[in-house]
Design brief:
The chain has 15 helices and 15 strands. By secondary structure, the protein is of the alpha+beta class. It folds into two domains: 181 residues, no CATH class; 242 residues, no CATH class. A hairpin with a 2-residue loop joins strand 3 and strand 4. The longest helix is centred in the C-terminal third of the chain and has 44 residues. The two termini are 25 Å apart. About 14% of the residues have low confidence.
Length: 454
């Protein structure tokens, strides 16, 4: 039998049993849709992870204080030093730590002793477990001095404050971050309009702010309308000195898009007061030296605070963990899709067995007129493959239809042509594999027995 005749028989059998073909391919439909969505969700997850960490250096290291609300964050970067080569102490020499504020002077990691003016008196040696860990600008500068390969540092904190102004009909709460002038450079923030916080605005405690892209749109409608406008944070007027470009990521625990940035000293004076949890960000010269830098930072911290527990983690590990979590989820979804495909393939196998039983006489006639076993095998195998192909096409269309519903649950979906092709391919392969044995059984029927079958 010629191949063209086999295809014609397949077409006739499928076209005369359209409803049966659709019902037979239900498992393949679900499997194909699942595979396509799994690949799309996996790709979306990878994009989400990449965007979430795109403004962090791969060698970023976070160090948090277990006994209080204090934290460090270190990240690897280029050759950038502190503005002016040093960090200025706040007015009055106050120091932050353990969720509180303490009056005093400056401290050093290098020596074992720290002196504090005012009521704090003098600390000798290491801090005890019951004493608050107090970290300041000077601590970040000491890390730059005593840890090789560290080239830049900044300090920041975040809080929640009420915001009014612009198009807001009522007061809303936003994340307000107190930062220094080099925070934007360290966190790879880009300005859409205006300039970032300056050293002068921080030193003078000026009431200026930088809005994230989402915050600017929500409060003023656009970055253009926000620039040089006035908004009220905790009932105090602030001038919008600039608006960030859309980042879609997190830097030092702060989401730039929805945050409002103000000078560090301004926030301490007008918003947070003594309730502050600073984060120090230090830049290492070489991302490949992150492990060494982490080790040296840990040693410096233990030397200064031998009885204090710190949690140290690098941004690279966070990115790897997020990526691994996404891969695990993708693998789980793929496993579910494979199970669905197997169920669909078994359904095709069962239907083909019934079909072979129903068409035994037809098979006997084909063999009697000279059709070979290979021709019979090919005919039934093509029917199984075509049935799977129909199911695959319907599955791809179903995935396209379901995608908007999936996105309503804040799941990022990145559909692709490769995903559609793979779905169709998996469907056809599944139908062919599970359809082979029934086709083989049909090809092995004895012509006389098949003709006499009732």
């Amino acid at each position: 039998m010629r191949l063209s005749e086999i295809f014609r028989l397949v077409w006739l059998n499928l076209s005369q049993n359209k409803f049966k073909v659709v019902l037979t391919s239900i498992g393949i439909v679900v499997g194909s849709a699942t595979i396509m969505l799994v690949l799309a969700i996996g790709a979306g997850g990878r994009e989400e992870v990449a965007e979430q960490f795109k403004n962090l250096n791969a060698g970023a290291i976070d160090i948090s204080y277990e006994g209080g609300s204090l934290g460090f964050a270190f990240s690897a970067g280029g050759n950038r030093g502190l503005e002016g080569g040093s960090m200025e102490m706040p007015s009055g020499g106050f120091a932050f730590g353990g969720g509180g504020l303490s009056a005093g002077g400056m401290q050093s990691f290098g020596g074992g002793n720290r002196s504090f003016g005012g009521e704090a008196g003098f600390w000798g040696g290491a801090a005890s477990e019951n004493e608050e860990v107090i970290l300041t600008y000077q601590d970040a500068e000491d890390l730059m001095t005593f840890v090789m390969g560290v080239s830049d540092a900044t300090i920041s904190y975040s809080t929640t404050a009420s915001v009014e102004g612009g198009e807001l009909e009522a007061a809303s709460y936003y994340t307000v971050a107190g930062v220094l002038q080099n925070y934007g450079t360290i966190s790879n923030l880009e300005m859409a309009i205006g300039d970032f916080i300056t050293e002068e605005s921080n030193g003078n405690k000026e009431k200026v702010c930088i809005l994230g892209a989402a915050a600017a749109n929500a409060i003023f409608g656009s970055a253009f309308n926000a620039y040089d406008n006035i908004l009220y944070i905790d009932d105090r007027a602030y001038v919008v000195a600039g608006v960030l470009s859309e980042m879609g990521s997190v830097a030092s625990g702060i989401s730039p898009d929805s945050a409002i940035f103000i000078p560090y000293e301004t926030g301490v004076k007008y918003i947070t007061g003594n309730s502050i949890s600073p984060t120090v960000t230090v830049i290492a010269d070489d991302v490949t030296e992150v492990d060494r830098v982490m080790g040296e930072v840990e040693r410096e911290l233990k030397e200064s605070y031998p009885n204090t527990a710190f949690t140290i983690s690098d941004a690279g590990s966070k990115m790897d963990a997020a990526a691994a979590s996404n891969e695990t989820l993708t693998l789980l979804l793929v496993s579910m899709a494979v199970i669905v495909f197997a169920v669909g393939g078994i359904g095709i196998m069962n239907v083909l067995f019934v079909t072979v039983k129903e068409r035994t006489n037809e098979i006997g006639i084909l063999k009697a007129i000279g059709c070979s076993r290979k021709g019979i095998l090919l005919e039934f195998l093509l029917e199984a493959s075509c049935t799977s192909l129909v199911g695959g096409v319907i599955g791809v269309l179903l995935a396209l239809a379901v995608t908007p519903l999936v996105e309503l649950f804040s799941v990022r979906v990145e559909l692709s042509a490769q995903g559609a092709v793979l779905s169709l391919l998996f469907g056809v392969i599944t139908g062919s594999i599970f359809g082979f044995y029934p086709a083989y059984k049909a090809s092995r029927l004895v012509p006389v027995a098949a003709l006499n079958q009732e």
